[in-house]
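Lab notes, practical 5.
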Amino acid sequence: MYLSSVKSGSFQNTFSWTNLINNKHLTIPVLKFSQKGLPLFIGKIRPAELLVMSSVDQWNEDRLEGYQRERIKEKNREIKDFLKNCDIPIVPPIIASVKLSSFIPTSDDYGQMEIPIIPGNISLIDGQQRTGGFYELFYEIRSEGKKNKDHGDMILDRYAEFLKFEIPILLIDPQLIIKKLQEKNSLSDIKPIDVERAFFFVINKTQKSVSSSLKDELAYLTISAGITGIPAIEKDRWRVDLVPIVNELNKEGSPLYGLINLGGSSGLQRPIPLTSFVSSLKPLYDNPTFHAYSQEEKLQFLKAYWGAVKEVFPDAFAQTKQYLLTKTIGMYPMNSLSADILNEMLKDGKNPLLQSDVYPYILLLGDLDWSVNASEFRYFIGRKGTGRGYELLKEAFQKKI
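Output from the prediction step:
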């Protein structure tokens, strides 16, 4: 009722809501703990409770108030699909501030937090996109219930499963934290939103994203283990198919041995990030012939192709710092061109899996200068630059055919 009225803009004050639910409280078993003297509580909450009671203090450009970013609909839908389809729909803890509450200890640091069921009483600090995913799931289930009344039992089962889901939540009581801060620093004007904003900043500023190469490796290992339904993996599933091939290209006996940084680790002196190499293979992956190849045949073609490249441009592999070929600006165009060379070889009746057959096609580009100081590719940067690099490479190749 509350969600529907809020969406339509008809529900104007919390007093009506308070009367409706007769001043009831949500009771959450919690563990109280302390970090540098600041009291924090960790417990669990169900989606329905979170949707009714949570609010987001979004950044306002005109008033310079708030702190949260906008909800991202696409991200919310991804989380909804994750909750529906993944075998392990693990939702990390949400961090929130509770405006009105009371902690009732039962033993030592264990106890119960009583939170009045008032809309907006829980302010989300970290977790609005996850909460948005539950919003999307709730409305989808409700919509299905209206459209498919003949499948009422099945929809009720889904709704019951939705209601049983438990979300870990770390709660801060800003008033308690303000009291502690005032004892230490004599702060008089600090407000709850100031505390929430500080937590939000610390959480988002101190988190370091996992490297893109490591994400690709982890996605591949996750799918290999048989775990599916993770939207971030499923929407770029083609990458998972290519990761094990690129892993093999980095092994001894491959022309690219030791040149690919598989996990994005720093200090390895390997010029080709796995994630960049995988991305650059998309035009080749979309080639019907290459796509129809087995994994072993895909690997053979790439070994033959890059083996021929290394044979034509040996200095670029011996002195990688002095040449652009094994850097992003060179590797992207070369991998894009591989799809064109594959088509040309098939038209000529050649075997793309043999380096000796690939070599004459790469030799047509033998007069290109890949040196850092003189190459015409040296001015290209970014995705547009790699695209222009491919155009130049293709022009040079077509002139020689």
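Observations recorded by the TA: DSSP finds 19 helices and ten strands in the chain. Confidence is low (pLDDT under 50) at residues 8-12.
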